[in-house]
């Protein structure tokens, strides 16, 4: 069940990225259109909308770590992760397409709850596929390519979804498109991705004499093989973290919490910010976010390549600085126009504001690529091979915890201030705290989890 440690298999990694494309597409449509549907149809306050938008995160914070750990212990003919994905995507697509058809708040809430529950049961497994199939030194590159696919999903959501929202304000066309593409992504995974565990299952059953191995017997055989592979990879199966590694892990997870607080606040409330501050319709507001996603997609793979040469931490720090530089001016768009004597109520003023905001979002997308591409590889770098799903769960625990806190907290801030410009003050503070945490992280670079090498293995380790 060995994994090649040579060059990155770009074709397989791209196909693997369809799982993340499906997830990103669904969440981008959900986060940009559901708040507007709740406000327009049911006249809910911003705080209540923020609470509803955290339902997925409550499920995520509970189930993501559990499912990640369970998938580590799932042994089937389809692999560890694929059974969760095969069941999860079709059910998620079903409830997703039903959301805009709800005529009452309670029915919409039922569809939202079911959709979010099922999504929480397959997201950790689909993300854990990348480190399962990719050697440690290549994970930043692979994550860059997979996030490029996720960014394409977001672009489809914002661009095509925004266009369909203009045609059909009920959201039925946009959500229908999202569901169809989710199912199409699953088909790509089923046809082109095969887990090493699935191959090992097939080989074990062929070699068994006169009977089929049980799941428990296969698990014991697989653990012995993985232990051998981990010794070769210097990871040490079942290896415990040192005190310094634990400190770096906690700081890194804290940074993940803060930068996802900022990101989730922007993603959830930007549509309302744009409709209330820039005075554009919700379709245009959704399309404006395409600028952020476009530069994220364009810089996803370069961010992984830069990290492989300059280091993951340095790349993340640079990304956080870029985010601070380009998001801070968002607070002053209206005051600056007044300062330069522009009538903020005129059509030309609205156009100027749109252009400025799109430009700033585009530049900020580069910074977000540097941050987001390299965070998961830093976390799973600290995991031995048998704990990849668990550490992926840790990553999602803190990112989803941020997604619980952030919409509620900013919803309350906005209701207290009655000013959507506070959205970017809030985001800048959160990104600043993330930068502070990241500056103290000392582990998580490629090969950082390596056990002390023997004299015979020193030259091999130096060549990684």
Strand content: under 5%
Structural class based on helices, strands and sheet pairing: mainly alpha
Indicate the percent of residues in helices. Answer: over 70%
Q: Which CATH-level-2 architecture?
A: Up-down Bundle
Q: Would you tell me which CATH topology applies?
A: Growth Hormone, Chain: A
* Text of the CATH class: Mainly Alpha
Please report the total strand number as a whole number: 0
Could you name the ranges where pLDDT drops below 50 across 5 or more consecutive residues? 227-236, 448-464
Structure, described:
- The protein is mainly alpha-helical.
- The protein has one domain (10-207, 241-445): Growth Hormone, Chain: A.
- It has helices spanning 10-42, 46-52, 55-72, 82-98, 105-119, 123-133, 139-167, 172-192, 196-207, 215-232, 243-278, 282-288, 290-310, 312-327, 333-339, 347-381, 388-417, 422-438, 458-462.
- Helix 3 packs parallel to helix 5.
- It starts with 9 loop residues before the first helix and ends with a helix.
- Residues 227-236 and 448-464 have low confidence and may be disordered.
Write the layout of secondary structure elements.
Blueprint lengths: L9 H33 L3 H7 L2 H18 L9 H17 L6 H15 L3 H11 L5 H29 L4 H21 L3 H12 L7 H18 L10 H36 L3 H7 L1 H21 L1 H16 L5 H7 L7 H35 L6 H30 L4 H17 L19 H5 L2
Which keywords apply here?
464 residues; mainly alpha; Growth Hormone, Chain: A; 77% helix
């Amino acid at each position: 069940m060995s994994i090649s440690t040579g060059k990155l298999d770009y074709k397989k990694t791209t196909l693997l990225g369809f799982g993340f494309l499906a997830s990103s597409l669904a969440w981008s449509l959900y986060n940009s259109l559901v708040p507007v549907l709740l406000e327009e149809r049911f006249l809910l306050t911003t705080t209540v909308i923020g609470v509803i938008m955290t339902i997925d995160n409550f499920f995520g914070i509970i189930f993501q770590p559990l499912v990640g750990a369970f998938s580590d212990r799932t042994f089937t003919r389809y692999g560890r992760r694929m059974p969760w994905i095969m069941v999860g995507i079709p059910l998620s697509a079903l409830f997703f397409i039903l959301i805009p058809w709800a005529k009452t708040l309670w029915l919409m809430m039922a569809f939202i709850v079911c959709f979010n529950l099922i999504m929480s049961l397959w997201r950790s497994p689909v993300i854990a596929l990348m480190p399962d199939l990719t050697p440690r030194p290549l994970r930043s590159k692979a994550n860059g390519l997979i996030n490029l696919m996720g960014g394409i999903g977001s672009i489809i959501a914002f661009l095509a979804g925004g266009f369909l929202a203009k045609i059909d304000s009920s959201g039925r066309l946009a959500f229908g498109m999202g569901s169809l593409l989710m199912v199409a992504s699953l088909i790509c995974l089923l046809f082109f991705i095969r887990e090493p565990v699935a191959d090992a299952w097939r080989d074990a059953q062929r070699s068994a004499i006169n009977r089929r191995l049980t799941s428990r017997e296969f698990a014991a055989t697989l653990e012995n093989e993985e232990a051998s592979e981990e010794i070769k990879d210097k990871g040490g199966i079942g290896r415990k973290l040192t005190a310094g590694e634990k400190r770096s892990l906690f700081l890194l997870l804290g940074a993940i919490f803060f930068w996802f607080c900022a990101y989730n606040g922007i993603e959830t409330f930007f549509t309302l910010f744009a409709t209330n501050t820039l005075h554009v319709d919700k379709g245009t507001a959704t399309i404006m976010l395409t600028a952020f996603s476009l530069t994220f997609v364009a810089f996803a793979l370069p961010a992984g390549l830069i990290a492989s040469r300059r280091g993951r931490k340095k790349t993340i720090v640079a990304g956080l600085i870029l985010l601070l530089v380009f998001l801070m001016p968002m607070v002053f768009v209206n005051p600056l126009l007044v300062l330069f004597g522009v009538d903020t109520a005129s059509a030309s003023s609205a156009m100027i504001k749109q252009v400025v905001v799109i430009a700033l979002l585009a530049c900020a997308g580069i910074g977000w690529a540097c941050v987001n591409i390299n965070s998961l590889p830093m976390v799973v770098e600290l995991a031995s091979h048998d704990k990849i799903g668990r550490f992926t769960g840790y990553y999602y625990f803190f990112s989803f915890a941020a997604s619980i806190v952030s919409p509620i907290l900013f919803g309350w801030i906005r209701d207290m201030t009655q000013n959507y410009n506070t959205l970017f003050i809030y985001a800048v503070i959160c990104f600043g705290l993330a930068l502070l945490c990241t500056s103290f992280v000392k582990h998580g670079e490629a090969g950082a989890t390596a056990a002390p090498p023997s004299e015979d293995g020193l030259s091999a380790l130096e060549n990684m």
